[in-house]
Design goal:
The chain is α/β, with parallel strands linked by helices and 315 residues long. Helix content is 30%, strand content 23%. Strands 1, 3, 7, 8, 9, 10, 11, 12, 13 and 14 form a 10-stranded mixed beta sheet that branches. Strands 4-6-5 form a 3-stranded mixed beta sheet, with no helix packed on it. It has a two-stranded parallel sheet with strand order 2-15.
Length: 315
């Protein structure tokens, strides 16, 4: 589906843009945003040249996180799962008694729809619904229901994880089966916050917090390498949620950010910077366009919000 998209094609990937939301979804979004605390890093931290969250994943798991592939309009669940996975590996680095576990994405997608006030056979959700679901319903670890692993397949030598569209569709109608809700609540993201500027995104990443982005920003399917990075720019519209997992004050390009997509490992090409497949870098102005649409969120494992320098990185 997405791997066959034409250059410059508009793509409905599953983020429901504000103009077409139902009254119930608009009200749910307003309530979530109204109750969400403002983003603030608690304490002092040092400016750094770069932070690549995949370094933490490689340290903890021993390899890159497989890139998701969505077969229905479930991008909101994909971005949520990505942010939760990178939050979890940093939690393990901060507390070695913890263990990384694989997250079952369809659960998060389904519960994001519940929080967004969406039911029925349609696809899609909202970035705010995903952020609320992360703190209200948590993440479902496959270890608690090993049979769920049978619904997932891998391609590209294990680099692409194909999420089960049939389960996303089934659970997305009215939420995940009740027996999984109490299990998921054991793995809550404790805080989320709305980010309005790229400086806030930078500060979140510098302090090891993953970020989700939902907007109509659409880039090139095959971005070009520039100054040693796979650099994308806005050329169309994708109604889409993705995740931001790296920051770099690049010597030639200035501040750039790595966006992780959910359309497979090889869809955009491979970046010479060593980033995982399935994503691309963007300039600061591109990311600000996304932030301006209001559904960019940082994820934290702390009830109190976003403490500075909580992860003892050794990279």
């Amino acid at each position: 589906m997405y791997t066959q998209a034409n250059e410059g094609q508009h793509i409905e990937s599953g983020w429901i843009e504000p103009g077409v939301r139902t009254t119930e979804t608009k009200n749910a979004h307003a309530a979530i945003m109204g109750a969400m605390p403002a983003f603030k890093i608690i304490g002092q931290f040092k400016a750094v040249e770069k932070v690549f969250l995949w370094d933490a994943f490689r340290q903890v798991v021993g390899k890159d996180k497989p890139t998701n592939y969505q077969s229905i309009g479930s991008c909101v669940g994909q971005g949520k799962e990505c942010a939760e996975a990178y939050t979890l590996v940093n939690t393990v680095l901060a507390d070695p008694t913890q263990k990384y576990e694989q997250i079952y994405e369809p659960y998060g997608y389904a519960q994001s729809r519940v929080c967004a006030g969406i039911r029925g056979n349609s696809d899609g959700s909202t970035g705010s619904g995903a952020a609320e679901a992360a703190t209200k319903f948590g993440a479902l670890f496959i270890k608690y229901e090993p049979s769920l692993a049978n619904t997932i397949t891998y391609t590209d030598d294990g680099k692409t994880l194909n999420q089960p569209g049939n389960v996303e569709k089934d659970w997305g109608r009215a939420g995940a089966p009740p027996k999984y809700i109490e299990i998921g609540k054991k793995q809550l993201v404790k805080s989320t916050a709305n980010l309005r500027t790229t400086d806030q995104v930078r500060d979140a990443l510098v302090n090891k917090y993953a970020v989700t982005i939902a907007s109509n920003w659409g880039g090139s399917m095959k971005p070009q390498v520039k100054n040693g990075v796979l650099l994308n720019r806005r050329v169309t519209t994708w109604n889409h949620q993705m995740a931001v997992i790296a920051y770099w004050d690049h010597p030639d390009l200035g501040e750039i950010f790595y966006i992780q997509n959910s359309w497979g490992w090889f869809v955009h090409g491979i970046c010479p910077s060593g980033a995982p497949g399935g994503g691309f870098w963007v300039l600061k102005g591109e990311l600000q366009y996304i932030c301006n649409q209001g559904e960019t969120f940082a994820y934290s494992p702390f009830v109190e919000g976003f403490p500075a320098d909580w992860v003892p990185w050794i990279f």
